[in-house]
Every structure is written in C-alpha cells, then in structure tokens.
Amino acid sequence: MTTIRVMLVDDQELLRVSLRTVLSADERIEVTHDVGNGSDAIEVVRRHRLDVVLMDIRMPRMDGVAATAEIVRIAPATRVLMLTTFDDDELVVAAIRAGASGYLTKDVRPAALAQAVCDVASGTAALAPGVAATVLDLVRQAPMRRTAALDGLTPREAEIFGLLARGRSNNEICAELVLSENTVKSHVRAVLQKLGLRDRVHAVIYAYENGLVGRQELPG
Amino acid sequence: MTTIRVMLVDDQELLRVSLRTVLSADERIEVTHDVGNGSDAIEVVRRHRLDVVLMDIRMPRMDGVAATAEIVRIAPATRVLMLTTFDDDELVVAAIRAGASGYLTKDVRPAALAQAVCDVASGTAALAPGVAATVLDLVRQAPMRRTAALDGLTPREAEIFGLLARGRSNNEICAELVLSENTVKSHVRAVLQKLGLRDRVHAVIYAYENGLVGRQELPG
DNA sequence: GCCCGTCTCACCCCTTCGGGTGAGGTTTGC
DNA sequence: GCAAACCTCACCCGAAGGGGTGAGACGGGC
User: Are B182 and B143 in contact (CB under 8 A)?
Assistant: First the structure.
C-alpha cells in the first residue's frame, strides 16, 4: 500500500508547518507539497499526481472555492478537503458545490484530521460535526438565497416573471394586469430571451433555484 | 455539567447491552433506558426527558424512521442518532428528513460513537464517513426523493414526474427513456390528472413546494 | 428638436401541450 | 383462467405557447 500524497494550501506558513508535522506523524500520509495560495496550488496539481489537497477556504490570490473548482476540473481523482476557521454556511455550500469532498473546521483534533485525510482519499467524505448540521439542514429543506438574478429585466418584465414563476398562464396574466394577450406574450418572450430560458417551465425552475419565489400554494 | 441522558432502541438485546457498556464507559453519558422497538421508544420519550435517542433504523413494530419522526414531533429537544448496518442511501435521506441529527454505521469505533452522542447532544450533527459522501451528493445535485406526495403514481409515472420537475419537454423525456412521444404524453397526462395539476408548469411548482426535487442546474 | 427605451398591441407562423379514445402487451394476484 | 393493474403506442382534436415582425404612444435625456 502506497502512502497518500497530500498538498497543503494555506496562506499562513505557520499553520502549514504545523499541519505538516501533524500529518507526517501518520505513516499513511506523505505531505509532498505546500503552497500559500490557490493559483500555486493549481500549478502543482497540473504537474504532479496528488491524492488529497487540504485547502484553506479564505486565501489571497484566488480563494479556496475557486481553486477547488479548478482542481476538480483538471484532476478529478484528486480529493479536496476544505479547512476553515468558521463553519460559514454559504461557504460550506459553495465548497461542496465546487466539488470538495469534505469540510473541516480548524479546531479539529490532530488524529481526526489525519483520519479525515485518509477517509477522503479512499473516496468517502469527511464533515466536521458543526458543519454536518448545516448540511443536514440543506437536505431537509433547501434554502432560498436572494439574488440579483433579474438584472436586465425592466420593471414590467420582472412583474411578468413573478407571475410566470407562480405558474400563471398567459391568459391569467393578461387578466390580472389588464393587458391584451399579445402584450403578455411579448413580455414573456422578452423575459425568456433575456434570461436565456427555453420556456415558462424553465422560468419556474430558475425562480426556485435562485430563491426568487417564496412559498406558494397551487390553486385547486 | 449534567450527564447526557441516552436511550438505546434496537431489537437485538445483545447489541443494546454492548452499546450500554461502551457508552457507560464515557463519564459524560448516562444510558437511562433501552427498548426493543419504536413504539416502546415513543412511550419512553413521552414520559421522560431524554437528550439523545440512539436508534436502529430497521426494527419490528414501527421502523426507526417512523419512530424518529414521531419522537421529533413530541420532543423536539431530543436528538435522534440513527444506527444501521448499511449506509442505505434511501434510508439516510428518509432518516434525515424525519429529523435525525446523525447517521452512523455499526462499524463505528466505540470512542467515535461516544463522541457522536456528545456531538448531537450539543446540537451539532454526526455523520459516518461513508454516509457523508451520500449526503454531499444530495446537496450537489439532489436526486428525486421518495415521498408521500407521489402516492398513487406508478413507478413509471413517478419517473416521468421527476423529469417533468426538471423541466424536460415531452420530446426530451421520450429520448431519455426510449419511448414514443405518444407514450410519454399518456404518462404525463396520468401524472397531471392524478396529482390534480393543470399543466407541467404546475408540476414543477408542486415538486418544489413539496421538496420533491433538490438543487438543479438549467442546461444552457 | 431627436433618439432611445419602455409599454402597448397586432398579425403571422409552427410547435408543443393537454385531453379524449382505443387497443395490444405484460405481469400480478385471486 | 380471469380480472386488474401497468406499460406501451396510435390517432385525433383544439388550445396554449414560443418566435418573428412591425408599429403607435409615451417618457426622459442629449
């Protein structure tokens, strides 16, 4: 059995040194590289085979999330384990969506850290207890995040979009806004075209995915 | 600091005894009850204050998921930690949605088990490494979850509904499932009729409002 | 003044969709 | 063996939706 090749990515050199000490104590692990920012990390990934990248989420010169996305893209076999001082909810989600295999807070105990590295190397995932709660909440009922995803729409178009998202037909919209159906169709066309959506079905999905619509009941 | 009051729920008495031994070795933990099925567990929860319920997911007389849902309903402060021999994907999701605070496999090491009990008691969550990967996948691109909101649909219809919820056109569906468009239309009609929905737009809304679909990306 | 964006509406086209009906095949259960 | 689901597919129809073009009215900004 070969050792697990690990790279450390953190802007604090002091922390890198201590991480190296901790991980090197585990005979299953070999720390082959350590760098201070995301750009350098990507360079290393491009040139060397790595099993696990242990990455701080907040860094200068390309943040951890962006670096993770790029690393996963160019080296899918390499696992990325995020390391952070906080269990910032948004960053957790962003990191996971970027393709991170785990998310640990820096108060993790040394033995647990080494174990987590081995876990992700073997294809499983590692979550810090405090982070796990956040993730479970996400599974339970997906959150809605507010976005400026309607930029570029005129006020009227945004209004039409809101009705589209609620499942209104063109006919219902023209009744509610006192417009001719032709006008409604013009607005709908503009909305779909500007947002790059194929049809009103996709408009509904877009609305939900971007948190642009609250809870609603279906009539009937 | 008071001890953490724990109840064990498992149909195998042998396992209950060994769990009791393991957990009692930790001075932070006090095993106050142990029962052999979900119904008894609920009775205990009704009468006593508990911090953590350690529950097997497969049991006679009300399965672990149903019992969890009921326990969470009547005693929201009590945390439920699922314990299972497998990391069955569907059961993981069901347990989490029922309100479980953690999910461990029975190959967990004793010290880790005690730590997990303390973790969930303090409000965080505990996930076994093998389970965490499953959950992360759900966050990344959540697949369709099985729910009562789809009762009455045949398996094929439920499958069609899942594609409807993702914004697929009839044409795309018939390509993905290798069916004629006429067949797809038949299924779509049955789905809309059974769920009392006007059109596919409302089907998407229904899916989101009932948590039947996770985060997804729109193509393009 | 003029231009530009917005809102309004009209007409055309063709595709997609929802609804109705019927029908042949399989599997499941009584 | 028969009934009852279920899956499959076909044909029909009318309505709804998406796309294109054009155009009149109003407003603000230069």
Answer: no
